[in-house]
Amino acid sequence: MTFELVVFLMGVGLVGGAWNAVAGGATLFTFPALMIAGLPPVTANATNYLAMLPSNAAALPAYRRELAGVGGAIWPLLLVSGLGAIVGSVLLLVSGQATFEILIPFLILAATLLFAFGDRLRQMMLDVTKGQSADGMLYAALFAFSIYGGYFGAGLGIILLAIVQIMGFSSFHVANSVKNLLAASFTILSIFVFGLGGIIAWPEALVMMSGSTLGGYLGGRYSRLVNEVYLRAGVIGFGFILTAVYFIRLSGGIH
């Protein structure tokens, strides 16, 4: 890697880590940045999982008390989400570059919509169940969304939060701790699958990871000084622009 590329990836990782700590949604620009750096789409996607792992897992130490109180109830959720993540990651391995390139605009659009309307979707899910648990349906939903998480995963956090709340973790902080643990665990499983499949660009991942680690720390430390509303609006706006760009590219308008 050139010095310029190292600086670029570290800088993007720094911003992405801080962004995740404050508002979430950094994958919408860290993933394209890795493609700009010259990585094929599938490799860029897999590399992004490893590069952003520190910022995605950064919240877990703050939830030690909540997670300790959950006890053994977490294991079925970890098992179902872990299986879904492995299925999604294997699908990425076998789908190949051409298929993934076709899906990129749809995946970015899905991630942007989840990020934009996730709170409303979460409330709708809570309203529909009216506090009553439907475990079979919810485990099926957790499995399905975890497949998406293992394949691409951006924007998934808010839906995971809704599922665990409906499952009986009614306290927001407890539900958020479970959500963060599920997201971190299936990210690690996906990285393991991608590593075995040989599709992670390790030098690029480690450079961006160094930036995201520092960014996640700084973002968590100074998050109260930042207006999250403006950051979220920026992520959503950028996501829709990126969706349009990749749809135009898919149609042959941009090369």
Fold and architecture overview:
With 255 residues, this protein is mainly alpha-helical. The protein has one domain. α1 packs parallel to α10, α2 crosses α3 and α6 crosses α8.
Order of helices and strands: HHHHHHHHHHH
Q: Which structural category do the helix and sheet elements fall into?
A: mainly alpha
Give the CA-CA distance, first to last residue.
24 Å
Mean pLDDT: 83
Profile the largest sheet: none
Share of β-strand residues:
under 5%
Query: How much helix, percentage-wise, in residues?
Result: over 70%
The coarse overall form would be globular
Count of the domains = 1
For this structure, the quaternary state is single chain
The residue ranges in which pLDDT falls below 50 over 5 or more consecutive positions are none
Gyration radius (Cα, Å) is 18 Å
By DSSP, the count of extended strands is 0
Query: Helical region count?
Result: 11
Topology:
Elements lengths: L2 H20 L4 H10 L4 H11 L1 H5 L6 H7 L3 H56 L5 H17 L5 H10 L5 H26 L4 H21 L5 H23 L5
Features:
255 residues, globular, mainly alpha, 11 helices
Short description:
The protein has 255 residues and is mainly alpha-helical. The chain has 11 helices and no strands.
